[in-house]
Each structure stands twice: as structure tokens, then as C-alpha cells.
Amino acid sequence: MGQAFDPQVLLSEALMANLATLGDEGPRNAPAWFLWEGGAIWMPASGSNSSVRRLQADPRCAVEVTRFDNEAGILLHLGLRGRASIQVMDGARFRRLLSKYLGPEEARWNPWFIRNVAAIDDPDGRMIKLRPQTIFTNNVSYARSGPQLAWPPED
After folding, report:
1. Which of 92, 94, 82 shows the shortest CA–CA distance to 127?
2. Is the CB of residue 104 less than 8 Å from the CB of residue 134?
3. CA distance linking residue 6 with residue 72, whole number of Å
4. Does the pLDDT at position 73 exceed 70?
5. Residue 11 in contact with residue 4, Cβ under 8 Å?
6. What are the CA-CA distances from residue 70 to residues 4, 33, 58, 140 (Å)?
């Protein structure tokens, strides 16, 4: 088994989260950008999104974030578990989330992407909010290289 690490290491990075939900059709998994803010993870969605529909029926979910760098031998895993809620889109929060992935200068954001994929002012916009009941971290960076090259580097 690996070692625990500070979850902020991954929560502050522009990584993909995987949202796991339950529905009548069984378990489902969806990749998502995310923002960690106020003790909760926030993921963009729309009111018609299948993850939103499943969470409205059963709010239990899990979110996984992983940093894997094969060359450097880094493998960090973060798991968040709990009950999600669906929130009306908060434009300021969504802009902070987009800044994490697209950079701080909105003028440099791809207009096509903002218009067609990440419409900030979409009236159907929602955010999935998970204030985790449990947080699990596992650093198994030594899996490839052995403990002498494990992350974080030893002094």
C-alpha cells in the first residue's frame, strides 16, 4: 500500500476528475474539469446532463483524480466520496474553473470553445457540488521506480 499525501497537491492542478454515479442502468463514469473551493469540488454540467439526472435520483457518488507520470515514476490517487448536489451555474465560479484550465486571460480563451462547449451564460448551466464525506489519498509513486525515486523526492 502507498502513503497518504496532502490532497491539495492534486486539487490545485489542472487534472481531469472522474465522476462515478449510479443509475437504473448501473454505474457510470464521466470525466470532468473541476474546481476545489470552499471545501467542495465543483464540476460543470447542464440541466439535461445524464450525470445530473442520475445525481438528482441518487446523490451518492465518488470522484477520482489521478496524476500519472510514467517517465518520472509518479502515481498519485485522490478519492472523494459523498453526496452531491446540483447547483445553478455561478458564472464567477465557472470563470475561476475555466481559468484553471484555460489560463487567467479570458481574452485568450478559444471563442469557439466558450460559445459551443463552455457557455458561461447558458441558462441550462449547472454545477455539480460534492462536499466530500471522506477523502482518500494514495501515493504509490514508487511502483515503477522503487522507494529511492518516490515522490515527493527525499532530501
Report:
1. 94
2. no
3. 19
4. yes
5. no
6. 20, 22, 36, 12
Is the whole-model pTM more than 0.70? Answer: yes
Cβ-based neighbours of 48, under 8 Å, separated by 6 or more:
124
Please report the domains of the chain, with CATH numbers, ordered by start residue.
8-141 (2.30.110.10)
How many C-beta atoms surround the C-beta of residue 18 within 10 A? 14
Spatial CA neighbour of 19 closest among 75, 61, 54: 61
Q: Grid coordinates representing 99?
A: 481559468
Determine phi and psi for 39, rounding to 5 degrees. 75, 15
pLDDT at 146 over 80: no
| 118 or 66, which is more confident | 66
Joined together, the cell numbers standing for residue 90 give 455561478
Q: How far apart are CA 155 and CA 14, in angstroms?
A: 27
Strands 74-88 and 40-46: unpaired
> Which tens digit of pLDDT belongs to each residue from 26-60?
999 999 999 999 999 999 999 889 999 999 999 99
Question: Please, which pLDDT band fits residue 118 given cuts at 50, 70 and 90?
Answer: confident
- Cα torsion for 43, 38, 135, 66, to the nearest 10°? 40
Residue type (1 letter), 121: D
